[in-house]
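Tokens for chain A. Residues wanted.
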């Protein structure tokens, strides 16, 4: 009982002391700890959205689309048999009040090249100049379209050229193509894998192996109806062949001929696995078919009957 009274008295003293502390002006002058609420710690101005167009607003590709004026955005030409290139010239003027720097011209493929007066080329306000575009016509026929996009500080400006050549079945076009192909093969036999040539010599081979790969990569030349005289008929080679023979020819080709190197490491288009599948086919079903198609020798006794 006495212990209970002591404990109650101590509790009352503690409560009285707390009341005095709250009422004490010195104690109440102590600043409370800073709040951690971010909405109170930072002004509302700190949460303004970044500058820029509202969501969904279309942004122009060209910062100043009217800065450069061209005499034409499309130029055309008609070529005749024997022509190996088509040349165009685009006149351009800087209509803006600022310098325009042309850094480069991006062409649509490797057979199209652009010529700038300098690189980079600076056009001051009111300045004019010319941009040249040249298209290699080797092996081409019909109508072809190419683009040359001018890349500048004022934006991108696409230019187009269209060349009309004799149709494939026009008189003399095949001989003209063959003559041009011979000339380019002597310089770069790998050109068959680039530009427009890739449509016939690269795309059909993608993902192919064995017999299908032979038809698309080899047969297109060696078994063509209008095969060039310098391209051998593989069914009638007058020499023994084996896996090493075919591997060497397919991988490395032969310089100064139409035969390109097909191995990727030599600038070709076929993987090691694809080349091996070709070799297996040529030494397997292909060689068997050659033997079956070979004429049967007639014995001397049969010839006397």
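Reply:
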């Amino acid at each position: 009982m006495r212990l209970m009274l002591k404990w109650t008295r101590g509790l009352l003293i503690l409560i009285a002391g707390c009341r005095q502390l709250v009422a004490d002006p010195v104690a109440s002058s102590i600043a409370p700890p800073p709040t951690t609420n971010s909405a109170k710690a930072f002004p509302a101005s700190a949460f303004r959205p970044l500058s820029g167009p509202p969501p969904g607003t279309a942004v122009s590709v060209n910062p100043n689309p009217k800065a450069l004026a061209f005499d034409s955005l499309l130029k055309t030409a008609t070529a005749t048999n024997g022509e190996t290139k088509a040349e165009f010239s685009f006149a351009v003027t800087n209509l803006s009040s600022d310098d325009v720097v042309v850094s480069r011209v991006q062409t649509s493929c490797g057979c199209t090249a652009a010529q700038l007066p300098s690189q980079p080329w600076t056009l001051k306000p009111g300045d004019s100049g010319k941009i040249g575009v040249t298209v290699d016509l080797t092996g081409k026929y019909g109508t072809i379209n190419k683009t040359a996009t001018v890349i500048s500080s004022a934006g991108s400006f696409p230019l187009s050229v269209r060349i009309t050549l004799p149709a494939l079945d026009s008189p003399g076009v095949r001989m003209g193509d063959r003559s041009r192909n011979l000339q380019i093969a002597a310089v770069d036999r790998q050109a068959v894998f680039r530009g427009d040539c890739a449509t016939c010599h690269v795309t059909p081979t993608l993902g192919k192996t064995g017999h299908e790969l032979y038809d698309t990569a080899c047969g297109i030349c060696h078994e063509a109806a209008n095969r060039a005289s310098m391209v051998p008929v593989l069914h009638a080679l007058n020499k023994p062949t084996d896996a090493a023979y075919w591997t060497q020819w397919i991988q490395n080709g032969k310089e100064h001929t139409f035969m390109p190197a097909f191995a990727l490491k030599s600038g070709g288009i076929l993987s090691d696995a694809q080349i091996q599948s070709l070799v297996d086919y040529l030494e397997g079903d292909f060689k068997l078919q050659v033997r079956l198609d070979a004429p049967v020798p007639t014995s001397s006794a049969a010839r006397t009957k």
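Confidence is low (pLDDT under 50) at residues 21-33, 35-61, 299-305. Residues 121 and 200 are 37 Å apart (CA to CA).
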